[in-house]
Amino acid sequence: MKVTAKDLRTKETDDRGRIYLGTEYANKRVTVAVVEVDSDRPDAEELATAYQEASESAQELAEEWDETSTEAWGELSDG
């Protein structure tokens, strides 16, 4: 049995990396080639970028809070 490009299918694996091919392959020798693997997890570079952005955002928020807090304490002490 030969497989042509139109017969290629994308399958999802279970949590152990196994794929169910279907009953049409029962009792047959099947050779499978992995052409591409996509991960649903971010890679190290994406994580580093997200961490950097979150860190910068937190710094900006802390600076804004410091200014707001200073103004609020100033208004309370003036009042």
Shape: rod-shaped
Average residue pLDDT: 83
Number of helices: 1
Number of strands: 0
Low-pLDDT segments: none
β-strand percent reads under 5%
One letter per element, helices H and strands E, the order comes to H
Relative helix content: 40-55%
How many distinct domains? 1
Helix and strand content put the structural class at mainly alpha
How far apart are the termini? 88 Å
Radius of gyration, CA atoms, in whole angstroms: 28 Å
Q: How would a crystallographer describe the biggest sheet?
A: none
Region (Disordered): 57-79
Task: Give an account of the 3D structure.
The radius of gyration is 28 Å and the shape is rod-shaped. It is mainly α and 79 residues long. It contains one helix and no strands. It has one domain.
